[in-house]
Design a protein that fits this description.
Number of helices: 1
Radius of gyration: 18 Å
Low-confidence stretches: 1-20
Largest sheet: 5 strands, antiparallel
Strand order of the largest sheet: 2-5-10-7-8
Length: 176
């Protein structure tokens, strides 16, 4: 009987931990309080770990900035140090408020001014293996923004993501 009770307590704790991880966390470029990069201009201030409170560390991979062409959007910075709006944006999933590696099973990105099927959202495991990808749909919502979504159900294995494309765009909102 004691063993069964310990098993039941253990299962309750495991279920509780999973449901705690199930909350959606969203951030947008409008949350940024640093210096803005001029639209299509040279990087003024890197995003880096500003969004770790929302579960994403942008120090991973490419350098990102937030450009000032309303509405603000996160942009990748090319090798010349310029926000060109075609350089990939990538981020690592982290425990909220820390730079410790974490995982998610869901990621949704909203990006602006891109034609249907020109943006790609990719999700990777901790070893860099591609888990899933999704193309953006037709423009919808304010400013012609589009969305892309990856949902792995209960499989918390997405360690980092990348958004890339061949159209003028910027990452407006990200939900994990």
């Amino acid at each position: 009987m004691k063993t069964f009770r310990h098993l039941l307590i253990g299962l309750t704790l495991m279920v509780g931990a999973q449901s705690a991880n199930a909350a959606l966390v969203t951030h947008s470029a409008q949350d940024w309080t640093g210096a803005l990069t001029p639209a299509f201009g040279s990087l003024v201030e890197a995003v880096d770990d500003f969004f770790i409170g929302s579960g994403v560390d942008y120090t991973f991979g490419n350098t990102e900035g937030v450009f000032s062409d309303p509405p603000e959007a996160i942009c990748g910075i090319n090798a010349a140090g310029v926000c060109d709006l075609v350089t990939a944006v990538d981020g690592r999933i982290v425990d909220l408020g820390t730079t410790s590696q974490a995982f998610t099973s869901y990621i949704m990105a909203e990006a602006g001014f891109a034609a249907d099927g020109t943006l790609l959202l990719e999700a990777f495991d901790v070893n860099g293996n591609l888990l899933a990808s999704a193309l953006n749909g037709p423009p919808a919502g304010p400013n012609g923004r589009t969305t892309m979504e990856i949902d792995l159900g209960g499989s918390y294995s997405i360690a980092w993501f990348r958004i890339s494309g061949q159209d003028s765009w910027g990452l407006n909102t990200l939900t994990i």
